[in-house]
């Protein structure tokens, strides 16, 4: 993949998630943490379905301690990952 091309599934996310960045420049591997935070905090349900298809639960568990989320979004992600022990 060339640096000028976005990760294809990123282009399927809601454009409103990218008000401050160029969506075509977002690389899902490099910006995985940012994408997960952005979708959890500002995305629609379809964005969540898409991101949870391409970012595995294992990757989310690894990212969880590094994520900067509001309590509501953090609780949702912990529940999705298997409850309060998913830390």
Structure description:
By secondary structure, the protein is mostly helical. The protein has a domain at 29-87. Helix content is 45%, strand content 0%.
Quick take:
By secondary structure, the chain is mainly alpha-helical. About 45% of the residues lie in helices and about 0% in strands.
List keywords for this structure.
single chain; globular; 87 residues; 45% helix; 0% strand; 4 helices; mainly alpha
How would you summarize the topology of this molecule?
Layout: H1 32-42, H2 45-54, H3 57-63, H4 71-81
Taken in chain order, the helices and strands follow as: HHHH
Separation, N- and C-terminal Cα atoms: 33 Å
Which class best fits the helix and strand makeup? mainly alpha
Note the overall shape. Answer: globular
Please, what is the average pLDDT? Answer: 89
Uncertain segments are none
Query: Main beta sheet, described?
Result: none
